[in-house]
Design goal:
Blueprint (H helix, E strand, L loop, with lengths): L1 E6 L1 H4 L3 H21 L4 E5 L3 E6 L4 H5 L5 E10 L4 H12 L7 E8 L10 H12 L5 E2 L6 E8 L2 E5 L3 E2 L11 E5 L4 H12 L3 E8 L2 H19 L6 E6 L1 H10 L5 H19 L5 E2 L12 H8 L6 E2 L7 H11 L2 H7 L16 H8 L5 H8 L2 E4 L14 E2 L7 E4 L3 H6 L6 E2 L2 H7 L8 E5 L4 H12 L3 E5 L2 H11 L15
Parallel strand pairs: 5-6, 5-7, 10-11, 10-13, 11-12, 13-14, 16-20, 17-18, 17-19, 19-20
Antiparallel strand pairs: 1-3, 1-4, 2-3, 4-8, 4-9, 7-8, 12-15
Helix pairs in contact: 4-5, 6-7, 6-11, 7-12, 7-17, 9-10
C-alpha cells in the first residue's frame, strides 16, 4: 500500500529554510507514528509530498493523527509517459468502480509541460470520455465517485479518496509549553489546539478529589499523548492539592475560593514551567463559562504568574468544545471527571478586585503550596502502561441491603428526588464529620458524576470504614432505581436529573 501525504498549506508557504526544517520534523513525526504502531514502512520525500509504503492496516488511521498532515490518499502509482497511457491505466483501474454511478475526474499536473505536453483539463476530458460508457453519467457538482489523477516527474498517481488529517504545524516546530490539565473537556481540547499549532506540551494536574480524580485525568492525558503526540514524549506531573484546598477554605473568604485557587494553580504551573524552560501556561478557560472565567476574574487570575497564559478556548461555546473532545477521543474519559464541584461556594465572586484577592492571600501560608510542588509525582505518558495505575476499587453498581446511602448533591437536587432512604449530607460537612459515623455500617455514597463520592469513599476507606461510591454517579443511580421501580414516574424526566 502506498500512502501519499500532503502537507498543511501553512508549511508550503514558509520560506525555503523554514519549510525544510518543518518538513524534516514532519517526516520524523511520521516515522515515530508508524514505529509506535509497529508498522514496517519505507518513507520517501518528494518535492511537495511524503510517500509511505507499508502493508500495515493501522498506518492510514495513525497518519491521519499527525499534525501537519493535510490530507492522505492510498494511491496506485504507475509509470506513464503519454496521455494515452493515463487514459488506459485510469480505465483499467476504475471502469468497474464507476459502473452505474455518477462520477467526475479531477486531474493535476505537477510535472513540467516539456515532460508531459498535455494539460490537466485534457486528462479530465479524455479519461472521463473513456469511463463514461460504464457509468450512470458525469456529475461535476455532486459525483458519487471522484477519480483523482496527479501527474509528476516519475509517472502518475491514481486514487479515489482524500482522507483529512488535522492540518496545523508539525509538533515540535513552535516551542514547548505547560498545560494545566483538569481532566475535564476544556483543558484537554485547549491542549489539543496547542499541539495542532506545533507546540510540545508537558502537563500539570492539581488533584482535588482523591485517587479516582487523578486516574481520570491520567486517562485523558494518555489519550493526548498516545493518539496525538507523535514526535514527543510528554509527562504528566501531578500535585496533591487537597491540603492546599483545605488550607484555603480555612483561611479565605468563600466567595473568593475559586479565584484564589486558580491563582495558586498558576503559581504551581509557573514553578514547573520555569524549572523545565517552558514558554507560558496553557489553560482551558473560556470567557463567561463559569464564575471564575469572567473578564475581570481572568484578569486577576492572570496576574498570579509572570509567564504568559495561552487560552485557545476563549471564544468557544461549550457545545463546540464538547464536539471537539469527541473528535479528539477524550470525551468518554472527561465525562467521568467533570468539574470538581466540592469547592464551589454558594455566591462566588464574578468581579473580584485584585486588592481584595491580595488581602485574602496574605492570610495563607504559602508553605502548603511549596510542599505540594516538592512532592510532585511524574508519569511518562507514552511509555507507561495505564493498567499499572488502576484506580482504587471503590465503585459499586448495586445498593447492598442495609447499607447507609448518602446523597452528596445539592439540597435542591436531593429534595427533587433521592434514592429511597438516602440521607442528605453537604460534602464539605461530610468530610469533617465522617470520623464520628458508625463504623460497623456499609456506606454507599453518590453525587452528580461520582467524583465527590469517590473522594469521600476513599478517605473513609483509609480510616477503616467500609465505604463505596456508586459507579457512574447520579445518572447511573437513576437508571438502577428505574429498573427496580423506585422512581415515581411523575418526577421524570427533568427534575430527577437535576
Amino acid at each position: 500500500m502506498r500512502i501519499l501525504i500532503r502537507f498543511s498549506g501553512e508549511i508550503t508557504i514558509k520560506k525555503r529554510r523554514t519549510r525544510a526544517r518543518f518538513l524534516e520534523r514532519l517526516a520524523s513525526n511520521v516515522q515515530d507514528a508508524l514505529q509506535t504502531v509497529g508498522a514496517p514502512f519505507a518513507l520517501q520525500r518528494e518535492r511537495s509530498r511524503l510517500l509511505v509504503e507499508t502493508d500495515s492496516p493501522q498506518a492510514l488511521e495513525t497518519l491521519s493523527r499527525v499534525f501537519g498532515v493535510q490530507t492522505l490518499s492510498v494511491v496506485e502509482r504507475r509509470s506513464v509517459t503519454t496521455l494515452d497511457d493515463i487514459v488506459k491505466v485510469g480505465t483499467e483501474l476504475y471502469k468497474e468502480t464507476v459502473a452505474g454511478r455518477r462520477f467526475a475526474v479531477r486531474a493535476r499536473r505537477l510535472a513540467s509541460g516539456k515532460s508531459f505536453p498535455f494539460s490537466s483539463l485534457d486528462i479530465e476530458r479524455e479519461l472521463g470520455a473513456a469511463l463514461a460508457p460504464s457509468a450512470a453519467g458525469v456529475d461535476l457538482e455532486h459525483p458519487q465517485v471522484t477519480i483523482f489523477v496527479e501527474v509528476h516527474s516519475s509517472g502518475a498517481d491514481f486514487f479515489t479518496e482524500k482522507i483529512f488529517g488535522p492540518g496545523g504545524l508539525p509538533l515540535g516546530t513552535a516551542g514547548r509549553s505547560l498545560a494545566l490539565l483538569s481532566g475535564g473537556f476544556d483543558s484537554a481540547v485547549a491542549s489539543w489546539l496547542m499541539l495542532k499549532r506545533g507546540v510540545e506540551l508537558e502537563y500539570l494536574f492539581c488533584r482535588l478529589g482523591g485517587s479516582l480524580h487523578e486516574h481520570g485525568a491520567l486517562r485523558v492525558a494518555k489519550v493526548l499523548a498516545d493518539r496525538w503526540s507523535y514526535g514527543s514524549f510528554p509527562k504528566l506531573y501531578t500535585l496533591d492539592f487537597e491540603p492546599v484546598v483545605a488550607h484555603l477554605q480555612e483561611r479565605v473568604e468563600p466567595r473568593l475560593w475559586q479565584v484564589i485557587l486558580k491563582r495558586l494553580m498558576y503559581r504551581a504551573a509557573e514553578n514547573l514551567a520555569k524549572r523545565f524552560h517552558l514558554i507560558g501556561i496553557v489553560t482551558g478557560e473560556s470567557i463567561g463559562q463559569v464564575s471564575s472565567q469572567t473578564l475581570q476574574n481572568l484578569a486577576v487570575i492572570s496576574q498570579a504568574s509572570e509567564l504568559p497564559v495561552w487560552r485557545p478556548l476563549l471564544g468557544l461555546n461549550k457545545d463546540e468544545i464538547i464536539a471537539r473532545a469527541r473528535h479528539i477521543g477524550t470525551y468518554e474519559y472527561s465525562a467521568t471527571v467533570a468539574e470538581y464541584c466540592a469547592i464551589l461556594p454558594k455566591h462566588p465572586a464574578t468581579a473580584a478586585s485584585l486588592k481584595a484577592v491580595l488581602a485574602e492571600e496574605e492570610k495563607l501560608d504559602m508553605g502548603v503550596l511549596e510542599r505540594a510542588v516538592a512532592n510532585m509525582r511524574a508519569y511518562d505518558l507514552r511509555r507507561m502502561e495505564l493498567g499499572a495505575y488502576e484506580a482504587p476499587a471503590l465503585e459499586i453498581e448495586e445498593i447492598p441491603e442495609g447499607a447507609v446511602v448518602i446523597d452528596l448533591r445539592s439540597p435542591q437536587s436531593y429534595r427533587a428526588w433521592h434514592y429511597p432512604g438516602a440521607l442528605y449530607k453537604d460534602f464539605l460537612t461530610a468530610l469533617k464529620e465522617y470520623p464520628s459515623w458508625e463504623r460497623d455500617k456499609v456506606y454507599v455514597l453518590y453525587c452528580e458524576v461520582g467524583l465527590k463520592s469517590a473522594h469521600l469513599a476513599e478517605k473513609m476507606r483509609r480510616d477503616g470504614f467500609q465505604a463505596f461510591h456508586f459507579k457512574g454517579g447520579w445518572p447511573k443511580l437513576v437508571q438502577y432505581a428505574l429498573e427496580r421501580d423506585l422512581v415515581p414516574p411523575e418526577i421524570l424526566p427533568s427534575s430527577a436529573w437535576t
